[in-house]
Amino acid sequence: MAPGPRPRWRQVPDLDGARSPTSCDLEVFTFTGKQRRRSYQVTVEFPQGRALFVEVGHCVTAGRGRVPSCQLRGPLFQDHVAFYRDFRGRHLLATAVDNWPFFKVNMLPNGTAVAGGGMDVSVLDTLAAKLNFTYSLTTPADGQWGVPLGNGSISGMIGQVARHEVDFAIDEITITGPREEVVDFTRPYFLESTTFITQAPQEKSRAYTLVRPFALEVWLVLVATVLFAGPILSLFTTAADSITRGDPPRGLSPSFADRPGSKYKSRTYSVETYAFGMYRIFVNQGSHLRTFWPSCRFFLATWYLFCITIYALYAGSVTSFLALPAFEEPLQSLQDLVDAHAERGFQASLLKASSHEAIFKNADGGLLHDVWLTTSSEVFVDSPTEGVSGVLRNKYAYIHATMALKIRAFKFGRRKFHMARETFYPQGYGIVCRSGSPYKAIFEEVLIRISEAGLVNKWAKDELDAIQEGNDEEEEEASGTVAITLEHLQAAFILMVLGGSSAGLVLLLEILLAWHKQDDLSGDEGSSGGGTKH
Q: CA-based Rg of the chain, rounded to a whole angstrom?
């Protein structure tokens, strides 16, 4: 509990001089007025908007045969918690920055700052109504939340409170150790964690749709399997035919007949024919290969089952890739961010003079220090809105509290952003009061009541729902069945172009070989003719 008001002793000629323009609002004055030669009246003036001194006792100084004494009929200091349950209409000065959804600050044409809504505005209005005070707003010149700086100064809202320029500050202000050294915080009225937001992962090119279902090693194994399947079947057929000398097995009729009425004879194929036949089976086009040898039939049966399995897996995967496009791997943790900095040039973006900047900047080592090394002077922003919008233009990962990121993601379009799954640095928000503030305790009492009643969470949800409604309508309009376009089928056309190009190259090679062979034949004929003539 914060201490009570501190006594300040001043000598004044009368009661009218007890208060002066330099008197601090909410001070408590104790006045001792001389009644007789050695007798003094003790009065106390409590802040009630006007000088109102109440007699609480009298004192007698030492004299001849008299012992100094002081008799008090009332306390010199009232219980500040009980006293400040009613501020009696006093006017307080608060500071805040424009930080919706917590505190929206609107500037009037005459330069006056007024509250425009937000979760913390609801908290402040409830405090004012409950404790019977009014307030006006001001904003820090630097527009920052504030931290103690190395040169001894204090920036932002924290500095305004520490220098007694304002009575208190409320605006998503995180309770931290360095800040508590210069100001007092109430107990936290809202708790949440920190995460980071990046641009939504880009869709992978559909040009690789036909090869994406299987990994590279799977494709290599499949190509080798298809290439060797034909020669293996040819080997089985040749071996069986040589052992049985072309006669079919006893009790089994041949699996083919050349023509009706023709005499049966054993049929064998070239290795190229076996290889192409196995390829036809692999691409689900059937085959004209026929055999009656049990070993060959067993091999073909297992080959059919193998191809059916591969085809089903491949066809299902291609269908899913066409219906649901594949995206780049998103960043889900701080370690992912550090890795992405090295591989893709991502940087961590932070709010200036914030608690988030402090935790990374002051880290001596480990992951937090590694994240700090990804920053540069260009990534620090003046507001959360600037930080969130910045990730759409650059490879930034903006680090901030979860609720503020959600709100701004909905505002700019949820589909444009990705929020990391990992959360860290749990933080609590409190009202910033002057050191030794007499009304901090009563602020805490009211804050605990509204927090336990669920009002703070309700106000936070109201702000989130307000921005989410319009965003949901846009997403519903964008959703629905999409017709297949050339973009979806570009992989098939690319494969066709590659096949045609390869066929053209092979044709050109065949023509060159044919010309070369024709030249050789012409040369041989010329040589033979010349020899005969001779």
A: 43
Cα separation, 509 vs 492, whole angstroms: 26
Instruction: Compute CA distances 111 → 105, 136, 139, 164, whole Å.
Output: 11, 13, 11, 22
What one-letter code names the amino acid at 401?
A
Sorting pLDDT into bands at 50, 70 and 90, what band is 282? confident
Strands (E), 82-132: 90-95, 104-107, 113-117
At 292-346, the pLDDT tens digits run 777 888 888 899 899 999 888 888 888 777 777 777 889 999 999 999 999 989 9
Q: How far apart are CA 502 and CA 5, in angstroms?
A: 91
Three-class secondary structure of residue 257 per DSSP: coil
Given 3-state DSSP classes, what are the helix, strand and coil percentages for the chain, each rounded to the nearest 5? 45, 15, 40
Domains and CATH numbers, the chain: 15-78 (no CATH), 81-188+437-452 (3.40.190.10), 213-257+265-323 (no CATH)
Interior CA angle at 85 toward 435 and 118, to 5°? 75
Q: Looking at the predicted structure, is the pLDDT value of residue 79 above 70? A: no
CA-CA distance, 103 to 441, in Å (whole number)?
Answer: 23
Q: Map residue 27 onto helix, strand or coil.
A: coil
Q: Which residues of 428-441 are buried (b: 16+ CB within 10 A; e: fewer)?
A: bbbbbbbeebbbbb
Residue 23 has pLDDT above 90, yes or no: no
432: β partners: 169, 185
Residue 28 has pLDDT above 70, yes or no: no
Q: How far is CA 403 from the centre of its chain?
A: 11
Q: In this predicted structure, what is the pLDDT of residue 365? A: 87
Question: Which two structure tokens, joined as six digits, stand for 86?
Answer: 């009613």
**H/E element holding 510?**
helix 486-533
DSSP strand pairing (168-169 vs 432-433): antiparallel
